Amino acid sequence: MRTRRLGAGLAALLLGVGACVTEPGTGPVPGGRCAAGTLDAQGSSAQRNAMEIWTRAYQRSCPGSTINYEPTGSGAGIKALVAGTADFAGTESLLKPKEREQADAQCSGGRTISLPMVIGPVAVAYRLSGVTELRLTPTTLARIFAGAISTWDDPAVRADNPGVDLPATPIQPVHRSDDSGTTETFTTYLADSAPGDWTLGADRKWLGRGGIGAEGSERLTEAIADTEGAIGYLELSYTRREGLPVARIRNAAGEFVPPSAQGAAKAVTTPGDGLTVEVDSDTRAAGAYPIVLVTYEIVCDRGLAPDEVPLVRGFLGWTASAEGQMAITDLGYAALPEGLRRRVAAEVERIS
């Protein structure tokens, strides 16, 4: 079984609100946790659309609160946290030992905690005139991004798509040019699922050669939409906003599955009573979608400025509430499993 264990960094931000928010389609969050003030955070662009829902709802229901979230990418978010310019950071990547040491130094008398908050499928989107349905095996996908397959009518692509009239259009792979947790998630999947065809390893930095680089999920989405023959990887909600078609990816059970919240949830487990999330790209569960990201909020457990504590706990409590999690499912995100959600919310309550 190929299982990817993910750190708990991004979710802390989202969990601490217990509060006073009413979002269309949700009820008010109990607890009266509205707080005034300003929080500045940045990081993962994969959770940008979730953050827009959460911040808009919280600020509308809690006058005097301002939540600024900049989708600068996981790497930039970690750097900002280490530099002390972000109140929390969102990332799909675990902190490296040196990064954790530097981030902990920003927590007076405390340490950083990494809490899972956002679960979502990484879609493989494309633009190819006349082709509305596309199926790809892990091997074909890896060979495309490794540069071993260069046209859409390659025999490997045709074998995945019997009966589909595929043109001889050159393939234009699009990747993130910034340090990206989505890139790490995607390349980890390729390395696990097609190790003979993807030999470049997994990292926040794109390790492939050639292709089109784009900074951030928004620009990557635009690059795919604007380029005939393009293919790229991004969190599902961006494809829905732009109306991009997405490929069905073959899972370990042999099914070609489209990205969805339900499919992503089937590839995720939360063993034990901690905050660990594992993504099993090799699960044979029916309907499982194998490329899944988990975004974490990294925040200090102690040592925040006294005037920041109520707002951090309030906002994160909202995002970690059952209502907050359900508020983002229409975008294609999967809600946290209930047991994990409760544990994350309890961890947020201990922030001081």
From TrEMBL:
The keyword Transferase does not apply. Keywords: Phosphate transport, Signal, Transport. One of its GO terms (biological process) is phosphate ion transmembrane transport. Gene3D superfamilies: Periplasmic binding protein-like II. It comes from the Bacteria. GO terms for cellular component: ATP-binding cassette (ABC) transporter complex. Residues 30-323 form the PBP domain. Pfam families: PBP_like_2. Residues 1-21 form the signal peptide. GO terms for molecular function: phosphate ion binding. PANTHER family: PHOSPHATE-BINDING PROTEIN PSTS. Belongs to the PstS family. This is Phosphate-binding protein. It comes from Micromonospora endolithica.
